[in-house]
Amino acid sequence: MRNILISSLLAASVLCACHSNVSSEKTFDAPTVQINFDADSAYKYVAEQVAFGPRVPKSQSHAACLAYLTSTLTRMGATVEVQTGEGEAYDGTTVPINNIIAHILPQKANRILLCTHWDSRPFADQDSDPVKRNSPIDGACDGASGVGVLIEIARQLQLQAPNIGVDIVLFDTEDGGTPSHLNNVEYRHDSWCVGSQYWSLSSLGRDCQARFGILLDMVGATGAQFCREQYSVMYAKNVVDKVWRAAAATDHKSNFPDSDGAYITDDHYYVNTNANVPCVDIIQYDGSTGSSFGSFWHTHNDNMSVIDRQTLRAVGETVLYVVYNER
Ligand SMILES: [Zn+2]
Q1: What CATH class has 4-325?
Q2: 192 C-alpha to center of ligand 1: Å?
Q3: What is each CA distance from 325 to 27, 97, 107, 144, 256, in whole angstroms?
Q4: What is the rounded distance in angstroms from the CA atom of residue 209 to the CA atom of residue 223?
Q5: Distance from Cα 219 to the centre of ligand 1, integer Å
Q6: String of b and e for 50-88 (b: at least 16 CB within 10 Å)?
Q7: How many A from CA of 306 to the centre of ligand 1?
Q8: Extents of the domains making up the chain
Q9: Which of 7, 119, 189, 269 maximizes the CB count within 10 A of its CB?
Q10: How much is the pTM?
């Protein structure tokens, strides 16, 4: 997905706690509102995206899913716009961009940003079977899981309004970065996160009023551990602390251990550096794999079989706790 720089010190210090099932207790000490996050509903939103087929830009599946996402978010009371543009793919060709932006309570000046990417990878360059590496992946976790959680959050915010406004941004064209299985292809660092680069340099990004942001990426796999991503710590330490406190308050420390992860070049990097919105990345960290991502990462194993409602719930309740605590 993206370039990773893991310092040996950080890698050595990672001690993610073992995953265990937690109760689905719904009432938390603070805020005073009851937090509801329906994991079955979020799971359904993940499955519906996957059912379109791989959401690769320029494909029919991508176009059909774009219509589904805009209509779904509109139905949940958000004011939805699609930012269209063009970017450059790893091979220098032009790639279209459709960033989906959903404004919840747009009249509120006090706002935060929730984001993820909705496209899926055009290749399976990490797959163990070389024959299958040229075909696109389902992207159930890498793409659809973050979107599924944010749609369910939008649904809940319509049922129980927060004190602040929320902008949900579904970035396009995140995952078409330079494939590793092709010969004679020069690596391009800027071939990832093309949609968020475009948004963050546009007036929508530069004028974004959000006080801070939370990016979700690969937030659906069974037993996922979310360790503190290091660009998040560098640019938005107080938001990292806020999110980990929320995870503890909602009884999800097993998914959010008190541990450091890697430096991941993900959409939040450009939200921080171009749009100047302090933004953290909630992203699975697996210290047992060479990539630091789950073993399914950029393979055909990234399908619905890896998606676990418990993980979706842990992320959804944590983020909703943050949202309802803001004034
Ligand atoms: Zn990816």
Answers
A1: alpha beta
A2: 9
A3: 14, 33, 19, 26, 19
A4: 35
A5: 12
A6: bebbbbbbebebbeebbebbbebbeebebebeebebebe
A7: 15
A8: 4-325
A9: 119
A10: 0.91
Q: Are strands 79-88 and 4-5 parallel, antiparallel or unpaired?
A: unpaired
Q: For 307, phi and psi rounded to 5 degrees?
A: -85, 130
What separation in Å is there between the alpha carbon of 121 and the centre of ligand 1? Answer: 6
The radius of gyration of the chain from alpha carbons, rounded to an integer in Å, stands at 18
Expressed in angstroms and rounded, the spacing between residue 35 Cα and the centre of ligand 1 is 30
Q: How far is the CA of 102 from the centre of ligand 1 (A)?
A: 23
Q: In Å, what is the CA distance from 304 to each residue of 14, 43, 53, 114, 168?
A: 28, 9, 12, 23, 24
Distance 164 CA to ligand 1 centre (A): 31
Tell how far the Cα of 34 is from the centroid of ligand 1, in angstroms. 34
In the reported structure, the alpha carbon of residue 224 is separated from the centroid of ligand 1 by a whole-number distance in angstroms of 16
> Which residues contact residue 254 at a Cβ distance below 8 angstroms, ignoring those fewer than 6 apart?
17, 18, 19, 20, 22, 314
Contact (CB, 8 A) for 102 and 153: no
- Please tell me the distance between residue 302's alpha carbon and the centre of ligand 1 in angstroms: 10
pLDDT in tens, the chain (327 residues): 554 443 333 333 333 333 333 334 455 555 568 999 999 999 999 999 999 999 999 999 999 999 999 999 999 999 999 999 999 999 999 999 999 999 999 999 999 999 999 999 999 999 999 999 999 999 999 999 999 999 999 999 999 999 999 999 999 999 999 999 998 899 999 999 999 999 999 999 999 999 999 999 999 999 999 999 999 999 999 999 999 999 999 999 999 999 999 999 999 999 999 999 999 999 999 999 989 999 999 999 999 999 999 999 999 999 999 999 999
| CA 142 to ligand 1 centroid distance, Å | 5
Q: Which residue has the tokens 């995952």?
A: 175
Q: What's the CA-to-centroid distance between 109 and ligand 1, angstroms? A: 33
